[in-house]
Amino acid sequence: MRGYMKTWCAIGDSFTYLNDHLDETGYRVTKGYLSRILERLPGLTLINIGVNGSTTQDWLEITIPSADIYTVLLGTNDWHRQIPLGAETDFTQKKPGTILGNLGVLIKNIYTVNQKAKILVLNPVERGDFICILDTLNQAQGSYAEEAGVMLSEVSDAIYQCAKHAGLPALDLHKECGFTQENVVCFKRVKEDGIVKDLPFPDYIGVPYNPEIDEYPYPIEAVNFTYDGLHPSDKGNEVLAKVIAKELEKLI
After folding, report:
1. For the chain, which ranges sit under pLDDT 50?
2. How does 179-201 read in b/e, with b if 16+ C-beta sit within 10 Å?
3. Is the whole model's pTM more than 0.90, yes or no?
4. Are 59 and 78 in contact (CB under 8 A)?
5. Which of 110, 203, 204, 229 could form a disulfide with 188 if both were Cys (CB 3.0 to 4.6 A apart)?
6. What is the torsion angle, in degrees rounded to the nearest 10, for the CA atoms of residue 41, residue 24, residue 177 and residue 77?
7. Contacts of 245 (CB under 8 A, 6+ apart)
8. Which of 242, 240, 231 lies closest to 18, judged by CA?
9. Is the dihedral of CA 131, 136, 138, 139 positive or negative?
């Protein structure tokens, strides 16, 4: 292990993007999971090309830089925007238009840049009710409910299984990192019958939040694995870094 020098390209959505944009977390995050991995694996040089809010469809047109190792963490925005999951044949046949098909095309595009690249495929973790800390009008329901009849857990499992069946290195973040509806936040601060309450999951489901008059529902004391119901806090980033670094070390 000593003396290795490898270039690592991180492909992903806001989970990846925010590593280099801590101001957009309201500085609730002091260090992202990518930076924490670099501390564990100092022989890596990082190219972070994460795009905030991106789906697998977006990545079909993005130029991929050359690197030795790639991580791909996508899918949660596809699920939220109701992009069809697709089938394993879409992945293997690299047929765009679905989550799995788009991922297959992206993997092909990476190999076009470097046919000897090592690619670690990751999958989404659970998410609670998201309320953007800098724009409270930007909000989304948690993964306790379906989007277009599909659970986020189904998307995560399909991504992991397709990668494994294709012989690609894959890490089941959804299973290994321990993000759950109960722990993504400690509670959600809402107003019920005119009374402000700190409700844990699942008690806050269906209780309305009005960003124009209600205070931000995730004060500091509500932070747990996420700081806003979706994006990893320092605690969440540390868990992600720990499990991902362990897998990346195997590829070096």
Report:
1. 1
2. bebebbbbbbbbbeeeeeeeeeb
3. yes
4. no
5. 204
6. -120
7. 36, 37, 40, 41
8. 231
9. positive
